[in-house]
What we know:
This protein is α/β, with parallel strands linked by helices. 38% of the residues lie in helices and 17% in strands. It is built from seven helices and six strands. The chain has helices at residues 24-39, 59-69, 102-119, 132-135, 154-159, 161-179, 207-219, and strands at 2-7, 46-49, 73-80, 92-96, 123-128, 140-148. Strand 4 (92-96), helix 3 (102-119) and strand 5 (123-128) form a beta-alpha-beta unit. Helix 1 packs across helix 6 (161-179) and helix 3 runs antiparallel to helix 6 (161-179). The longest helix has 19 residues, at 161-179. The termini are far apart.
Amino acid sequence: MKIMLDAGHGYNEPGKRSPDGMKEYEFNRVVANYAKQFLEGYENVTVYFAHSDDRVVPLQERTDKANQLNVDCYVSIHANAYGNTWNDAGGIETYIYPTRPAEAAQLAAKIQRNLVASTGLKDRGVKTADFHVLRETKMTAVLAECGFMTNPEEIKLLRSDSYRKTCADAITRAVAEQYRLTKKPAPPPPPAGIGLYKVQVGAFKDRNNAEALADRLRKDGYEPFIYFE
């Protein structure tokens, strides 16, 4: 099973950002990264990226790559927007090309259902659109809009790492359900008393840098602490 994940747009693409400056690609790429990690926990799954952190990949290049690799499924990940100013438009919607076969509609319905159930946002339904990534791909292709960057409440979610992980998990579960994927067996635990378990997100000589990272983590809902050795 070969899956192409497409984080829509790019860091340097003009527009495509919230009224207060969050770039859409920032959200899209993190969800794609988490989804790749989750999908690779299933047997016989290979995940490719259509996008790049180094440049804005043209749409034609993205679909050409998917077609050349002959992937089985193409999932484009986005955050939505309505205009350029704050408003109350919100919710989840998923798109397929108007003439796509039943498999695309089935996968889109599963992604839509899982995203709505996991996020609690408004269900805007499965829709059709003449988007390039849906039209020019030769395989089952869907595009998921995971919330509105122009909604003052939903932008808070879109900035949250836990929400990004939630969206990735919902998309992964939908793909796994559609294609009846089997999870890889869990690795055996290490023998008792061997090894160390550590979690650390940064080490700095300048305390100001440590404080800055801690502030960002608090905004994402974590409870960091700083210690000096």
